[in-house]
Amino acid sequence: MMNVNLIVVGKLKESYFREACAEYSKRLKAFCRLSVTELAESRLSDDPSEKEVKSALAAEGKAMKNFLSGKDCFNIALCIEGTRLSSEKLAEKIGSISVSGKSTLNFIIGSSFGIDNDIKKMCDLKLSMSEMTFPHMLARVMVLEQIYRAFQILNGGKYHK
Known about the structure:
Layout: E1 2-9, H1 15-28, E2 32-39, H2 50-65, E3 73-84, H3 87-99, E4 104-109, H4 117-122, E5 125-128, H5 138-154
Parallel strand pairs: 1-2, 1-4, 3-4, 3-5
């Protein structure tokens, strides 16, 4: 059974996001071992300078590095400049990763300012969810739903229509 890790910056504050994540986490137990690691979000001023943002991303990236090493890991950074995949193509990607000898799939979700460039360079895939802008905390729900959908597609489930 594949290990799927979400490495995220920040905590979910709204109960409706936590409940949605809990539901998809419960559904995913049939397909993988899911782990969610919440890393501390750097404190920034109300109008941070570019230097302040870069420093915050570097600090968050340093905390992320511990989770991304290992030859059995496939790391995916969720970032705006990443490749956009359909649900079917994401399912194919996850399927090919699972048969390639990689047993751990890491999805990295940065802060609302993104992910440090050094972390992006460590990743095997940069993935964009959309050209649209969504609330940062919704990203976790969307990623869990798409992972669940991918496993349903791979296993011939009826969830994906």
